[in-house]
TrEMBL record:
GO terms for molecular function: zinc ion binding. This is SWIM-type domain-containing protein. InterPro entries: Znf_SWIM. Residues 525-556 form the SWIM-type domain. It comes from the Eukaryota. Residues 712-727 have a biased composition (Basic residues). Keywords: Membrane, Metal-binding, Transmembrane, Transmembrane helix, Zinc, Zinc-finger. The chain crosses the membrane at residues 20-41. Residues 711-763 are annotated as: Disordered.
Length: 763
C-alpha cells in the first residue's frame, strides 16, 4: 500500500463541529495568554497553551495521489484514497462531549477510509511504482560495503528474493520496495560512493577522504602512508599484512619485478607494483599509487618505499636484480633510488618491440626478410655462451641487409647487459627472463580485483587493493600451501623423468655435489644445494634444473629454489598467507607418511625459460604515453600545439557562416567535454580519444556506424570495426566456419610473418 508518511503533518484537526467552537476559544485564549506572558517577560518564544485532545493523528494518501506531484507525471494518478487514523486522549474534559469516549471501556480510536483507488493495485505497474523501503536501502548499502557492483548487487538480491519467497515469486520480483529498479540502485550507489570515497572527477584530490580512513586501515594492520608535500604531486604507499610478511622472505632479496598501469580508476592514477617471486606465485612487497608518470613521480614513489620500509627486500635494503619493461621513466627512477641493483629487460617485450618495428610500414622492411631478421636478433638474445654470442653478433652484421635495422640493433647492443641472456648467468635471477609476474598481477588487478570496471577514484582503489586483492592473494597462496595446484607437481615429475635412475651422485662436501650428465658421458655438473645452483646451462642462473631435482629426490637436502616440496615449505606458505596467529600448526601441513619421507613432491611454481610467449598482457598504451613523454622535445611540442590551434581557427573560418544552430550545439558540447579532464592522465586520455575519433571520420566518411556498445558485445573473432555485421542466412557457396584469429603468441606471429596481434585493449 501507499507510503505512510506521504501526507504526514499536513492535517487539520477538524473532527466535529460541536467541538470546534470550544476548541477555537481555548486556542485563542491560550495564544493571548502566551503572547501576554512573552511580552511581559520580554521572551521571544511563544508557548502554545491549547488543550491537547489527541495522542495521535495522521492521514495517509495513496502514493499515486496528486499530492506533491507534477501534472502528467506517471505517479500522478489523482487517486483519492485517504486513510485517517486518530487516537483520542481520555480525560474528563474530552469525555464530556464525546459519546464514544463516554462508553466503558472508552472507544478512543477512529479509522476513516475515504474514496477508492482510481487504479489497479495488483499489476506489475502498480508494484513497479512503489518506493524503495528503508530496510531494502540498508541491504543494498551492505552489498556495496562488501564490494558488490550495482549489477552484481541487483543480481544477487533478486536471486535471494526468489529463494526466500517461492510461493509469491513474481509478486515479489515486481515489487520495487523490496526489489528496486536498477536506476534506484544506481542512485543509491552514487550516494554511497560519495559518502565513502569523497568526490571523483574534480581538481580536489580524494586524498582528504583517504586521510579520514587511515585509522580504520591501521586497526586492520594495513599501512597506508600518504605523501603530498606539494599539491600537484601526491603518492600513496600501501603495505598489507601479506606484503609485510613477504618482506622477510629470502626470495625478496634476489629478483624483484615491477610494472605500472594507469587505467584502474576514473582519474587514471598510476598504480606501480613491486613483486617478489615466492613458492606460491608472485607476491607484492607494496603497491604505490601516484598521480604523475614522469621520472620524478616514480622517484618519489620508490623513495617512499625505501624510506618507510628500508629493509623490505628480504631484510636487505636493495635487491640483486630488478626486472622491468623498457620504460625509461621507471628504469631511471629505479637507478636513482637503488643504484646498486642490476636491471634486466623482459625478453618477451624486447622481442615484441623488435617484431613490431620490423612489421611497421614506415620502416620499409621487405615482408620476406622480416622473419630472417628477427631470427638473427633472437640468436643474439638467446646465445648461451661467449662463442655463440660473438658468432651471432657477427652473423647479424653480415646477413642483415637493412641499414636502418642494423643501426637500431647496434645502438641497442650498447645496453646488452640488460637483455642478452649470456649476461644473466652471473646473477641469481632464478630463471626469470620475462616480466610475466608483473603482467599477470596487473591482469589480476584489472580482471579479478576490479572486474574490468574502473574504480571510482584513488581512494576506492586503496580499498580494492587492501581488501579484495589481499583476499585473492591469500586464497591463491593457500592453494599452494594445501597442495591444490597440480602444475608444479607435473613440472617436478617431468624434471625427474629426464634423469636416469642409475645416474651417479658424489658428495664432495656439505651442500656440494657432482652429478653425472644424462646425455654426455664423462661430463658432470656441480650442484650447490645451499644456494640452489647448478653448473649446467639451465641451473646457472639459479633456476631449479633436473640435476638439482635429482639430488633432491635422492638425498632430500634443502634447495632454496626448489618447489614447496616438504611440509616445512607448505607451512611457510601458510604462515605467509595467514600470519602466525591464524595459521594451523605445522603438523597440519604434513602428508600421511611425510615424516619418514621428507622429499615428497609438492607444490610450487616453476618458471620456464620458454614461457616468455605466454600470458604477457600488455600495457602497451600506457607505455606509449610514457615513451612519448620521454622524448622531451619541448620546442617541437609547442610548435605542434600552435599548429593545432591554427587549424581549429581555420576550421572555424570555413564553417562559421554556414554552420547555423547545429554548429553552435556541436561547439557547446565540445567545449563542455573538453572542460572536464583535469589531471594529466585524464587529459592524455581525452587527447588519445580525440585522435582516434579524427581517424575514424577521415576513413569512414558517410557511413552510419554501430553503437560502440554493440562492438563490445560481439563474440571473439568477429570484426571489431564500426560497421554492421551481416545478418541472416549465409550464402550456400561460402565456408561455414570463419577463420580463427592468430593466437597471441609472438613465435606464431613470426612463423606466420604477420604483425603481432593485440587481444587486450586498455579498458
Ligand atoms: Zn491509489
Ligand atoms: Zn643442472
Amino acid at each position: 500500500m501507499g507510503r505512510p508518511d506521504e501526507l504526514a503533518g499536513s492535517h487539520m484537526d477538524i473532527d466535529s463541529w460541536s467541538d470546534t467552537a470550544g476548541w477555537l476559544l481555548g486556542w485563542l485564549l491560550g495564544w493571548l495568554l502566551s503572547w501576554l506572558a512573552a511580552w511581559l517577560v520580554g521572551c521571544q518564544r511563544w508557548e502554545f497553551l491549547g488543550r491537547e485532545k489527541y495522542i495521535f493523528h495522521k492521514k495517509w494518501a495513496c502514493h499515486l495521489s496528486s499530492q506533491n506531484k507534477k501534472e502528467g507525471s506517471q505517479r500522478n494518478r489523482k487517486c483519492p484514497l485517504v486513510i485517517d487514523i486518530l487516537v483520542k486522549k481520555v480525560t474528563r474534559n474530552t469525555q464530556k462531549n464525546d459519546s464514544y469516549l463516554k462508553k466503558s471501556p472508552p472507544l478512543q480510536g477512529k479509522i476513516t477510509i475515504t474514496g477508492q483507488h482510481s487504479h489497479q493495485t495488483d499489476n506489475y505497474k502498480a508494484l513497479n511504482l512503489l518506493r524503495i523501503s528503508e530496510e531494502t536501502k540498508e541491504i543494498f548499502n551492505e552489498y556495496f560495503n562488501n564490494g558488490y557492483s550495482v549489477a552484481n548487487a541487483l543480481h544477487a538480491h533478486e536471486a535471494q528474493l526468489v529463494l526466500k519467497y517461492p510461493q509469491e515469486t513474481e509478486y515479489v520480483r515486481c515489487n520495487a520496495s523490496v526489489n528496486p529498479l536498477p536506476r534506484t540502485v544506481y542512485h543509491l550507489h552514487k550516494i554511497w560512493l560519495k559518502s565513502t570515497y569523497g568526490i571523483a572527477w574534480s581538481n580536489k584530490s580524494p586524498i582528504e577522504k583517504l586521510k579520514e580512513k587511515l585509522d580504520q586501515y591501521k586497526q586492520e594492520g594495513i599501512d597506508v602512508i600518504i605523501d603530498e608535500k606539494d599539491s600537484s604531486r601526491w603518492c600513496v604507499l600501501i603495505v598489507t599484512p601479506i606484503m609485510k610478511r613477504a618482506h622477510s622472505l629470502p626470495e625478496a632479496s634476489e629478483i624483484i619485478f615491477t610494472d605500472s598501469t594507469a587505467s584502474c580508476d576514473a582519474e587514471n592514477t598510476v598504480v606501480s607494483i613491486v613483486l617478489t617471486a615466492t613458492k606460491g606465485g608472485a607476491v607484492p612487497l607494496c603497491v604505490l599509487l601516484h598521480n604523475r608518470q614522469d621520472t620524478a613521480g616514480y622517484i618519489r614513489a620508490y623513495q617512499m618505499l625505501a624510506q618507510h620500509k628500508p629493509n623490505c627486500f628480504g631484510k636487505k635494503s636493495c635487491p640483486e636484480v630488478f626486472m622491468t619493461d623498457d620504460s625509461v621513466q621507471e628504469k631511471d627512477a629505479l637507478a636513482t633510488v637503488w643504484p646498486d641493483a642490476i636491471q634486466y629487460l623482459c625478453h618477451f617485450h624486447v622481442g615484441q618491440a623488435e617484431w613490431r618495428w620490423l612489421c611497421e610500414g614506415k620502416n620499409q622492411v621487405d615482408i620476406d626478410e622480416r622473419q630472417s631478421f628477427i631470427r638473427l636478433f633472437q640468436q643474439i638474445m638467446y646465445a648461451v655462451n661467449t662463442e655463440q654470442y660473438e658468432e651471432a653478433k657477427e652473423n647479424f652484421m653480415n646477413s642483415c641487409s637493412h641499414e636502418k635495422y642494423q643501426d637500431r640493433v647496434n645502438s641497442f647492443l650498447k645496453r646488452e647487459r640488460e637483455w642478452a641472456l649470456i649476461f644473466r648467468n652471473e646473477t641469481l635471477n632464478r630463471g626469470h627472463n620475462t616480466n610475466n609476474f608483473s603482467e599477470a598481477s596487473i591482469r589480476v588487478i584489472k580482471d579479478i580485483v576490479l572486474g574490468r570496471t574502473k574504480a571510482y577514484n584513488s581512494c576506492a582503489l586503496v580499498d580494492y587493493i587492501s581488501h579484495v586483492w589481499e583476499d585473492h592473494m591469500q586464497r591463491r597462496i593457500l592453494h599452494y600451501a594445501y597442495d591444490r595446484e597440480a602444475k608444479p607437481r607435473l613440472v617436478y615429475n617431468k624434471l625427474l623423468k629426464r634423469m636416469p635412475q642409475e645416474t651417479k651422485i658424489e658428495e664432495i662436501e656439505e651442500g656440494l655435489y657432482m652429478v653425472q650428465s644424462a646425455e654426455k658421458e664423462g661430463l658432470s655438473y656441480e650442484v650447490n644445494s645451499l644456494v640452489g645452483w647448478c653448473s649446467c646451462q639451465s641451473g646457472r642462473s639459479g633456476h631449479f634444473c633436473k640435476h638439482q631435482a635429482f639430488v633432491f629426490s635422492k638425498c632430500g637436502v634443502g634447495f632454496p629454489n626448489k618447489p614447496a616440496v616438504t611440509f616445512n615449505d607448505r607451512y611457510k606458505l601458510g604462515l605467509l598467507a595467514l600470519g602466525p596467529e591464524k595459521c594451523p600448526k605445522i603438523d597440519f601441513f604434513k602428508d600421511f607418511d611425510e615424516e619418514n619421507d621428507t622429499h615428497m613432491i609438492e607444490n610450487s611454481f616453476l618458471q620456464d625459460i620458454q614461457m616468455d610467449q605466454d600470458i604477457c598482457q600488455q600495457e602497451q598504451d600506457t607505455r606509449e604515453i610514457s615513451e612519448h613523454q620521454g622524448v622531451g622535445d619541448t620546442e617541437r611540442r609547442e610548435k605542434l600545439i600552435n599548429e593545432l590551434k591554427a587549424q581549429i581557427d581555420r576550421l572555424h573560418d570555413v564553417v562559421k557562416d554556414e554552420g547555423g544552430d547545429t554548429y553552435d550545439k556541436v561547439l557547446e558540447t565540445l567545449v563542455s567535454r573538453l572542460r572536464k579532464p583535469a589531471t594529466p592522465g585524464q587529459v592524455m586520455e581525452t587527447m588519445i580519444r580525440w585522435k582516434a575519433a579524427s581517424l575514424v571520420c577521415s576513413r569512414r566518411r558517410g557511413q552510419i556506424k554501430v553503437l560502440p556498445g554493440a562492438i563490445q558485445r560481439r563474440k571473439a573473432g568477429k570484426s571489431r570495426g564500426a560497421g554492421r555485421i551481416r545478418a541472416g542466412r549465409p550464402p550456400n557457396n561460402q565456408p561455414k566456419t570463419s577463420k580463427k584469429p592468430l593466437p597471441r603468441i609472438l613465435n606464431k606471429s613470426i612463423v606466420a610473418n604477420k604483425p603481432h596481434v593485440k587481444t587486450h585493449s586498455r579498458k
